[in-house]
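Quick one, probably user error.
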């Protein structure tokens, strides 16, 4: 059974006259271009540990098939603002699964997109637990935590915003959660 032991987050941007090359450049900027990435749905595995990118890259090998939750936006419209964000909702009580959300969009600030992806992750975690919640109503400002099914849930986001190249070149922005065996 494969359950990732570690997760790290990364983000990047890329620019090129070719759309695919722009994406490849964003992967290079995020330091994950050497892997065969496979997008997966968004469950944060129980007992997984968040590590920094340098530690994660030491575990992985070039050419390895690597599972990830990936958010991606691309455009060639000069000056267009774009964002890619991965949100995380993780129960404070250890040993429970969490949720990773992907959000991409246009016109939002990095902060707006990040908060949106966090609320989305909290909502989806609640949904998988059989509860429908309004994230704004379940947020405790004093503790900086959400409450889902009577359990405290912390949230965070990993977001990248950029503005599309002024000369009309393809611009790609990505944010990713990399799942490490």
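Nope, works fine. Designed sequence:
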């Amino acid at each position: 059974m494969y359950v990732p032991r570690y997760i790290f987050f990364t983000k990047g941007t890329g620019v090129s006259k070719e759309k695919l090359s722009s994406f490849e450049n964003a992967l290079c900027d995020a330091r994950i271009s050497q892997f065969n990435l496979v997008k997966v749905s968004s469950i944060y595995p129980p007992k997984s540990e968040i590590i920094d990118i340098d530690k994660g890259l030491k575990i992985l090998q070039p050419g390895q098939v690597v599972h990830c939750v990936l958010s991606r936006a691309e455009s060639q419209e000069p000056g267009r603002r774009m964002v890619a964000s991965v949100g995380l909702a993780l129960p404070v009580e250890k040993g429970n699964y969490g949720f990773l959300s992907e959000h991409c969009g246009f016109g939002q600030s990095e902060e707006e997109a990040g908060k949106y992806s966090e609320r989305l992750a909290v909502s989806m975690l609640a949904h998988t637990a059989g509860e429908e919640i309004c994230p704004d109503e379940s947020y405790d400002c004093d503790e900086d935590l959400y409450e889902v099914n009577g359990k405290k849930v912390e949230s965070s986001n990993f977001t990248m915003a950029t503005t599309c190249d002024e000369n009309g070149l393809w611009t790609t922005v990505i944010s990713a959660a990399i799942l490490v065996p």
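The mean pLDDT is 94.
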